[in-house]
Every structure is written in C-alpha cells, then in structure tokens.
Amino acid sequence: MSTEALEKLKTELGATPPESFDRLPPERIALLADALRRERESRASGLNQAAEEALKLVPALARGPVRRILFR
Predict the structure, then answer these.
(1) What is each CA distance from 52 to 12, 42, 60, 63, 67, in whole angstroms?
(2) Fewer CB near the terminus (10 Å): N or C of the chain?
C-alpha cells in the first residue's frame, strides 16, 4: 500500500481517511486526492472572482481601503 498516496489524501481532506481506503489501489487514492485539490483550487478561484466583482459595487475612491480591510 502506498503510504505516500494516503498521506496526500490525508492532506487534501484535512483528516485521516476511513480505514476502508486502505483497500483502494494507490492510483485511485492519488486520483481522488488530485480531484479534491483541483476542486479546492476551483472554488478558491471562484471566490476570488466573486469578491472582485463585489468590489465593483464599492465607490472607486473607497475600493483600495476596502480591499485592504477585507483581504489583509
């Protein structure tokens, strides 16, 4: 069993995977870990885009200070 794949999955989950995952082939575990990483990156990108769109509602002179306050 690939402990490297399980460690990668553990990192992506932020918790220890269930014991039943030990029975999965290492390539499946790696595939799952990669899918979780890509989804997290996609969501982060979407949140950043939404935040930038929301800042367009703030008057231009206040955008800089608001951006610094919200995104320290």
Answers:
(1) 26, 16, 13, 10, 9
(2) C
Give ∠ CA 52-42-57 in degrees, rounded to 5: 15
* 13 contact partners, CB below 8 Å, separation of at least 6: 36
Backbone CA torsion sign across 35, 41, 42, 43: positive
Q: Which domain holds residue 21?
A: 3-70
Helices (H), ranges, the chain: 3-13, 26-55, 60-70
How many domains does the chain fold into?
1
